[in-house]
């Protein structure tokens, strides 16, 4: 009888333990665990005293998933911009509301199909699938062929499942054609972005080759690309709406000796027409005649369904959302939740309502205690606290059966996604799973980690309003995460923090460093992706910041298509003496151009915001070095030719000293170019009439400043005797007012994502 009663008590105890929150029944921490916690706390406090973090707004909240105790907290209730950490909220709500087995459906219907396979109208009705690609459209074309379709009159694309508001709140703060700014659409293709491939022509002086992927009549391509004799690649691509089409303009030059194609991804602006025109092209290639046009419209009620294309299950889509930080997938999900939960058409507002209901009813985060305006984290639109994000993470950790899908969707430290190159050499590799977040002045990291001692933690860390490069901030966040992962190890959290110290130290004589750098430069020049494994390993283990920067450049050169390679270069390269200063010494020893500058200028010439800022910092760091000034003068001239408006925006954001140095070098380059139709002057004239009065005022000030510097640059030096260099007149000649200060948070460039997601 007593044994029987004991069994009942044990069973009841097990049921209660499942119903109570995580950690409720756990025993008090042991003396050993208390010591580990104190060591962890001391290590975390030491990291927060780093100069880069000390002057920033930082929110941190860490909690044990085993006993529920708060391990560390710092400003955890302050509302901060979480950047792409908002995707943790969006994906959690979508997983809970839609379910892990949810599939998107895209419907193909016909009206009036004859026995010979002639179709009067082919209707395509979208339901928001974010995963349709060109490859999947080829499969659809085959399925339509096998249903008997041989000829199509017109194609009608039905986009009515979503409303017509393409871009969510927050996107309007940035005027950009970058792929991460892609609009939403119930009918979407290739994440509503297009790849533009460029390669050299037959030889120096020949026209460069531009190819679209996918090709279709949707695109109007203006090719201003030339083939150059120099090794440098300077290419910019712009994408702008042109009614029912998209205009793609390619400028610059590609070197003849680098025969391989490179690509850039740009957003498109009319998703249903992009989808329809690409489908028309594929149907024709498959052998079906398309006699009519593509147009937008509603599906006829009399149309007959012939095929339904289904997406992968939702858990697969989640991995693209979080591991790659896809803004497009996040916003598609938000509208999908709106349509499924509140009725079509799906909208951003309806989607946010569904998310707010999930947070309040299931997670316990009250409405009005946070700000959520979009699902992706762009730009200065959302506010959450570290404690709130941590509460969500704890909820999803205990929400079986959704927890495995949720946890597997976030990047793994040192292994994949946006954490592929982070935490190397620490206990966090393979143990930490977290979502990154990156905007200008914002860096965040939230997720889960299992310590070396076997304890499980959830954490959220956000940093706002930091000045300068993101590299030191990212290093600080990584040190915080690595410290938690090292808890319970023989070395402890403090050693983990020391191993991921903010930056490395220059080591060795310059000749020895130059010899090592020479090897890595040669590997980079090979542009062989087979070298990536070795270069990654070397970059992860290298502590000398100058050598590390060269390794980062070689990673980028070995695979310029990989966003993470460019990201690594931007994070590793700085204008300080430890990197740029030492690399100038190395360049003199090796009789080469300063390593890293060419690749940084290549990114800047393509309009990369961070690269532009770094080039201006390099201009300010040249000092009295005539060779370095000459190199940066040429670089700024090339950037001014291919990305003129982006350069003006970057100059407006630069520190005064860097701006002054850069405009001096730019004026010198413009004088040497001596072309009356230089793209920079044209762009500056356009910006004088900008709708934003502050942008127009800055353009006016820059115009007059450059006028003066150009006059100084073309004046004959005493040693030259006479004969001033001929140069085109600047855009105007107004007296030079000082450039207006950049208003905090009001300019479009104030919050700029550095990648398609972050």
From TrEMBL:
Residues 733-743 have a biased composition (Pro residues). The lineage of its organism: Bacteria, Pseudomonadati, Myxococcota, Myxococcia, Myxococcales. Keywords: Carboxypeptidase, Hydrolase, Protease, Signal. SUPFAM superfamilies: beta-lactamase/transpeptidase-like. One of its GO terms (molecular function) is serine-type D-Ala-D-Ala carboxypeptidase activity. Belongs to the peptidase S13 family. PANTHER family: D-ALANYL-D-ALANINE CARBOXYPEPTIDASE (PTHR30023), PENICILLIN-SENSITIVE CARBOXYPEPTIDASE A (PTHR30023:SF0). NCBIfam families: PBP4. This is D-alanyl-D-alanine carboxypeptidase/D-alanyl-D-alanine-endopeptidase. The keyword Hydrolase applies. Gene3D superfamilies: D-Ala-D-Ala carboxypeptidase C, peptidase S13, DD-peptidase/beta-lactamase superfamily. Transmembrane segments: none annotated. It is an enzyme of class 3 (hydrolase). The gene is dacB. Its EC number is 3.4.16.4. Residues 708-758 are annotated as: Disordered. Residues 1-26 form the signal peptide.
């Amino acid at each position: 009888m007593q044994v029987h009663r004991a069994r009942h008590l044990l069973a009841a105890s097990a049921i209660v333990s499942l119903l109570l929150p995580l950690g409720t029944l756990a025993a008090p921490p042991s003396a050993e665990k208390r010591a580990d916690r104190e060591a962890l706390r001391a290590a975390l406090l030491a990291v927060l005293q780093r100069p880069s973090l000390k002057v920033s707004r930082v929110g941190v909240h860490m909690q044990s998933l085993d006993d529920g105790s708060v391990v560390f907290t710092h400003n955890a209730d302050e509302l901060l911009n979480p950047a792409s950490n908002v995707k943790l909220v969006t994906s959690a709500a979508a997983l809970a509301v839609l379910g892990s087995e949810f599939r998107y459906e895209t419907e193909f219907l016909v009206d009036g199909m004859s026995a010979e396979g002639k179709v009067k109208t082919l209707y395509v009705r979208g339901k928001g699938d974010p995963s349709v690609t060109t490859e999947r459209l080829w499969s659809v074309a085959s399925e339509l062929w096998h249903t008997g379709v041989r000829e199509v009159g017109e194609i009608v694309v039905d986009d009515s499942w979503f409303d017509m508001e393409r871009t969510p709140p927050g996107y309007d703060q940035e005027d950009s054609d970058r792929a991460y700014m892609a609009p939403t659409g119930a009918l979407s293709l290739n994440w509503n972005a297009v790849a533009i491939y460029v390669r050299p022509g037959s030889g120096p002086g020949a026209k460069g080759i531009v190819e679209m992927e996918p090709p279709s009549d949707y695109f109007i391509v203006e090719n201003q690309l030339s083939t150059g004799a120099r090794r440098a690649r300077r290419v910019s691509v712009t994408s702008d709406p042109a009614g029912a089409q998209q205009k793609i303009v390619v400028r610059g030059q590609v070197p003849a000796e680098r025969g391989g194609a490179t690509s850039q991804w740009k957003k498109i602006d009319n998703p249903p027409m992009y989808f329809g025109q690409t489908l028309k092209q594929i149907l024709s290639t498959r052998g079906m005649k398309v006699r009519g046009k593509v147009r937008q419209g509603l599906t006829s009620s009399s149309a007959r369904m012939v095929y339904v294309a289904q997406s992968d299950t939702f858990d697969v889509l989640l991995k693209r959302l979080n591991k790659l930080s896809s803004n497009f997938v996040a916003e598609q999900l938000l509208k999908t939740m709106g349509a499924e939960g509140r009725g079509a058409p799906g909208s951003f507002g309806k989607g946010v309502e569904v998310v707010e209901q999930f947070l309040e009813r299931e997670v316990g985060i009250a409405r009005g205690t946070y700000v959520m305006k979009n699902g992706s984290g762009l730009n200065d639109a959302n506010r959450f606290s570290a404690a709130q994000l941590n509460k969500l993470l704890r909820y999803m950790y205990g929400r079986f059966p959704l927890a495995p899908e949720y946890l597997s969707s976030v990047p793994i430290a040192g292994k994949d996604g946006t954490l592929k190159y982070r935490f190397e050499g620490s206990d966090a590799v393979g143990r930490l799973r977290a979502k990154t977040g990156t905007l200008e002045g914002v860096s965040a990291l939230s997720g889960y980690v299992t310590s070396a001692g076997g304890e499980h933690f959830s954490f959220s860390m956000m940093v706002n309003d930091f000045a300068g490069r993101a590299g030191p901030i990212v290093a600080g966040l990584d040190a915080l995460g690595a410290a938690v992962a090292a808890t319970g190890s023989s070395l402890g959290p403090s050693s983990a923090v020391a191993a991921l110290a903010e930056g490395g130290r220059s080591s060795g004589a310059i000749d020895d460093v130059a010899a090592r750098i020479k090897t890595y430069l040669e590997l980079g020049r090979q542009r062989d992706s087979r070298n990536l494994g070795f270069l990654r390993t070397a970059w992860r283990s290298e502590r000398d910041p100058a050598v590390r920067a060269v390794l980062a450049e070689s990673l980028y050169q070995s695979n310029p298509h990989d966003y993470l390679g460019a990201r690594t270069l931007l994070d590793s390269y700085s204008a300080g003496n430890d990197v740029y200063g030492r690399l100038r010494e190395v360049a003199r020893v090796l009789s080469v151009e300063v390593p890293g500058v060419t690749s940084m200028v290549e990114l800047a010439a393509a309009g990369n915001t961070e690269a532009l800022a770094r080039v201006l910092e390099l201009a300010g760091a040249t000092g009295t070095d005539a060779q370095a000034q000459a190199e940066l003068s040429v670089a700024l001239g090339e950037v001014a030719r291919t990305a003129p408006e982006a350069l003006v925006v970057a100059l407006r954001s630069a520190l005064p000293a860097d701006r002054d140095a850069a405009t001096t070098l730019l004026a010198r380059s413009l004088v040497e170019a001596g072309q009356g139709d230089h793209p920079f002057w044209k762009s500056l004239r356009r910006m004088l009439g900008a709708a934003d009065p502050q942008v127009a005022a800055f353009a006016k000030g820059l115009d007059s400043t450059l006028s003066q510097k150009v006059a100084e640059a073309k004046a004959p030096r005493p040693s030259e005797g006479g004969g001033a260099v001929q140069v085109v007149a600047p855009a105007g000649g107004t007296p030079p007012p000082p450039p207006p200060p950049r208003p905090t948070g009001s300019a479009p460039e104030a919050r700029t994502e550095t990648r398609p997601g972050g």
